[in-house]
Amino acid sequence: MSDGKIFSRGGPLLPRAVRGEGAYIIDASGRRYLDAAGGAIVVGVGHGRADVAAAAAEQMGRIAYAHGSAFTADALESWASEVGPLLPIRDASLYPVSGGSEAAETALKMVRAYWLAKGETERTVVVSRWGSYHGNTLGALDLSGRKGLRRPYEPWLGRFEHVSAPYPYRAGLDGANAIGSGAAAVAELDALLARVGPGRIAAFVAEPIVGATLAAAVPPDDYWPAVAAWCAQHNVLLVADEVMTGFGRAGTWFGVDH
Q: 84 with 55, same domain?
């Protein structure tokens, strides 16, 4: 450590963050950095928010933790009553988790639990897309289609199927795994269904707008209507990963609202 900086192993000096104000991070030397992306797109309300810190401290002063299988709590019920009506589904149920990777893992388990409850135990195939990112834990990484992140762990991956990303700019290019229309998406899904067999596909998981991996690549207008109709036709659950597109980031409460 030197002059407020810490050596990164094999890399350049990293500034030591000591506090934040709104959209800025301040290092140990007093230099200010515009945190334009909110870190890894996680600081949606800004840094140094005294009201947020006070609310968290007040709650921690009351109780640290109570397991959700045994207790509910006023803070949890209040949160759910405000968030639930915003969701683009009827009679929403909410299950809070700590972050995006955990949300993806939980969604996968919920898909499995759903089909077990329905008695369709052979629905084990989950489909996601190349050029996607759903998290960095093992199941979420396998669901993701970000090849650079997957490469070191390939021997541990391979449970999920992947189809092309809706990315007209690179559609048809060798190795791009990109398509340019809803019709092309349905053709790929039909081919996958023919290969794995009817009654085997449990869910299609995707970001409404591709975030980190393809830098906000918006799908063609006919893509989601075609994919949603295909899922409905074949009784496949449709899971929207709204970690990066939810809560107003795409101009509506959720990306699927578009």
A: no
Residue 119 phi/psi, 5-degree rounding, is 80, 10
φ/ψ (deg, to 5) at 129? -125, 150
Which residues on neighbouring strands pair with residue 210, listed in sequence order? 217
Q: What is the pLDDT of residues 128-157, one digit of tens each?
A: 999 999 999 999 999 999 999 999 999 999
Q: Domain holding 136: CATH number?
A: 3.40.640.10
pTM of the shown model = 0.89
Note the pLDDT tens digit of each residue in 189-220: 999 999 999 999 999 999 999 988 998 899 99
Q: What stretches of 63-162 show up as alpha helix (H) in DSSP?
A: 74-83, 100-118, 138-143, 147-150
| Residue 185 shares a structural domain with residue 205 | yes
Domain range enclosing 22: 5-61
- Pair (118, 164) in one structural domain: yes
